[in-house]
Amino acid sequence: MMTDQAMNFRGDRHPADSYEDVLAREDRPIPAYMREGRQLGDGAMTVATERYCNPAFAAKEVRHVWLKTWQFACREEDIPKPGDFHVYEVVGKSLIVIRQDDGSIKALHNVCLHRGRKLVSGKGCRSEIKCPYHAFTWAIDGAYKSNPIPWDFPHIEPAEFRLPEARVDTWGGFVFVNFDPGAKPLLDVIAPLATDFERFDFANRYRAIWVQKKCRCNWKALSEAFAESFHSITTHPQILPGIGDANSQFDCPNDYVSRQFSATGIASPFIAPLSEQEIFSHLTGARTRITVDGGAQLPEGATARSALAAMARENLAAETGKDYSDATDGEMLDSILYDVFPNMAFWAGHVSNIVYRWRPNGLSPNEAIMDIMILKPVPASGERPRPAPVFEIGLDESMTLANDILGPGLAAVFEQDMLNLPQVQAGLEASETGRVYLGRYAEQKIRALHLMIDRYIAAGEALEA
């Protein structure tokens, strides 16, 4: 419960301890990337509610954002062998992401050039791509091979009848696609992510969990539920004894990447002060991404945060055979999220890493899809487990269906978010003012998202003029 005693805010933007204050108490050197970086500035910002509801605005996003930006389609571990494919779909487009004989990857448009049928669905392995409708056939590199009645198609030039391709690049074990041949290189876009995550060896991780949820809301409303932390005050009250929320740190290291740092092992400034033992007992009794045994007594002289980090280092070293003695407490415990425009977020850290992806459900402005993946380090044996298949949860189904996959604690947190979102969408559609007001600092990632959407739409419309 929020109390007057808890509302002891400093005069600047940070209530109680800032994240920098938390880092100052660490006994290991703090990597430069954890320090607060570039800010968007203090400009007040409102956005129109029609951005979340209007089909015409959604159509602008399709043309100028979704078909112009890098998005991850799958993991490389999803397509390990030649001919292995994974279908990625967004805003009515469909790509066959397929491994080639030389180990490279192509993204072929999943449309038969004869009469338009989708060529494949889901995932699988093919030695060639044959349309189920009329048996027009292409090689796995997109080269045209044959059709059953070639004499009736003398006008087909085989060299020009290749399946069209999207751009492909990889980073950290993820396969990214981009429909725009003129887009910036992937590594230029994700440069802060690629540099800072070198410490975490994402390529040497496997997908342990994949849950996909369809939601009755706009894709931006969905992503924004995971772009700030002070909603925990009312949406996730059960986590307040163990995580900083309104004192999280935010910045935007480049135009495409925005970041959030929320400390674990401290209590929210919105509740009455707790002892270190109370914080420790809360977190060791809760199911989080840190594997600890419940009921533990805080070691003498330790803080909850330092003890939890020590336990995490010990457990992870036993699992992976690696030494984490140089890893900061924050890198073992904290919620450190890097959002990449337009629709992805990657958790940093040495323990299990959560990855989010958001996109419209088809072309609808009021339905969206969220993918939640959890990556874990490859075990000490070096044997890579098979990547987890997707577990799908429908529009009106509860995230608690994933209790056995996510664990009931994490599933409950996601369910609390999902319960808000249809009501958010309904309110946006009914809004009398037609405006949404965004905070200058705590909602900086949301501001960055809308500024980049505007930038892409303006650039696209200028080219069309």
Descriptive report:
The protein has 465 residues and is α+β, with helices and mostly antiparallel strands. It has two domains: 19-48 and 200-464, Naphthalene 1,2-dioxygenase Alpha Subunit, Chain A, domain 1; 71-178, Rieske Iron-sulfur Protein (3-layer Sandwich). Helix content is 25%, strand content 23%. It has twelve helices and 20 strands. It has helices at 19-24, 55-66, 186-189, 191-196, 219-224, 232-235, 276-285, 304-320, 329-333, 403-406, 408-430, 444-464, and strands at residues 45-48, 71-75, 84-90, 93-99, 105-109, 123-125, 128-130, 137-139, 144-146, 165-171, 174-178, 205-215, 249-251, 257-262, 335-340, 344-347, 353-360, 368-377, 391-393, 435-438. The strands form four sheets. It has an eight-stranded mixed sheet. A hairpin with a 3-residue loop joins strand 15 (335-340) and strand 16 (344-347). Helix 2 (55-66) packs across helix 12 (444-464). The protein is globular and about 85 Å long. Mean pLDDT is 94; it is low at 1-11 and 287-294.
